[in-house]
Amino acid sequence: MFPETAQCLKAASSLFSQTVYLKELRRLSAHGGARRHFGVSRCLTAKVPPAPKPRQKVEIPGLEMVTYGERMHYVPGLSKPSYPGWERDYKDPRYYRSPPVQDMPLYKEKPCYVFSQRTSMLEGVRQALWLTKTKLISGLPPQLVSLAEDPANQIPDQDERVQNAIKHARFWDTTVERPGKEKYSNTLLINLMHLCATLQSVHPAIGRRILAEKYILAATWKRGEDLFQIRGQNRLLHNCMDPLPEVSGKQEVADTADHALETFYPVSPTIDLQKIHMYEEEVNCSGFRDDYPYPHAHTLYFLEAADARCKLHIEQFRANMLMFTFGNALARAHKLYGTQPQCVLDRPITVQAVGTNGRMFQFMVFQLNTTDLSGDSGVKNQVWLDEDVELYEFAKVQPLIKKKQVKVPAGLAGYKPEAFSKFLALYLHGAV
Questions:
Q1: What is the pLDDT of residues 333-363, one digit of tens each?
Q2: pLDDT by residue (tens digit) across 163-219?
Q3: Which residues neighbour 397 within 8 Å (Cβ) at sequence distance 6 or greater?
Q4: Which among 135, 113, 130, 147 has a CA at the least distance from the CA of 348?
Q5: Per-position DSSP letters for 330-368, written without gaps between them
Q6: How many CB atoms are closer than 10 A to CB 23?
Q7: Is the separation of the CB atoms in 300 and 327 below 8 Å?
Q8: Cα separation, 229 vs 236, whole angstroms
Q9: In a 3-state reduction of DSSP, which class is residue 236?
Q10: Tens-place pLDDT, residues 4-14
């Protein structure tokens, strides 16, 4: 017997007759012994009140309500008058009312799908590859690998200086015991770029670059019958006066026509993208004016914890890198060749990307081979992705002790120089 039933039995013996109690017992058994809330408020029972139905006003011709409008004051028993909306003869931004969406000049029946810096794609990199008509290649290009392994491109006391840069970001550049990921990842990225810039005396072409922050990007393209746009701000961008050299030759670019794009049916390619009806079709902006002396995008830098209000998983983070790298290359292609006609580029456009969370690095090289993205056939774009490259294993302020044994000592542990060699190779690409 349920405890609630026993309590009900005691109450029924004093207040109700045996017949009333048996009826209540049958009701409890039918509901699985559920407890009845006598006199309990709605908030405790977790019941949401139904939404009130709007009151419908009925207008009967010839039968008007008697109101107190003519008397200019409230009169009990008379109806409240309804006055027409008052239109100001001047513009007051505090009381501005936008017209209906259908009446706005930029409204279009055909929707447009927008990708922004906070978009989290369900399928991640696979979805980004389909949207950009791109072929994925694992690892970095061979010329960049050889560039990283060349001893002539090494920094004097490289390993020691890189470890000092890590310690500065994790231990020294803070007043708290444990800095946040957003803090030390940004400090580490700036330290590594400053360390790479010390090679300017050996490679003078590094001085033909500039670092831009929070620039606004916009690019438009068609994929199938749908229209897509990419909008938003990037964290950091290295611009240069000279474009990056091509990574793949003409024969390798032509061979991409045989590559079949991966599908993820029944998931729609437009899932998680913002659907809007107010837009401009020919929106292509690299974020800089036409007379900007550094028009070519070199490397984009992404921080995994840059936006505390939007935390992306690692797969979605890589897709974000790919989409914005493609957007920078596409905006530059539209500036050089125009939006029409869409064709295979005589000189492909190369843009790089580096993403990090302060310990793991994602390296990406994107080459835009064609602006004809409507169909799945023909030449594809190319992207080289080297993912989850670890710079170090642990950076502990205090040692990790388990069962009276030091598992991880205090300080920096597990440093891996291969990660910085790849970072340096992408930095020197185009300057060597």
A1: 999 998 877 889 999 999 999 999 999 999 9
A2: 999 999 999 988 888 888 899 999 999 999 999 999 999 999 999 999 999 899 999
A3: 171, 177, 178, 410
A4: 135
A5: HHHHHHHH-SSS--EEEEEEEEEEEEESSSEEEEEEEEE
A6: 13
A7: no
A8: 21
A9: strand
A10: 555 554 554 55
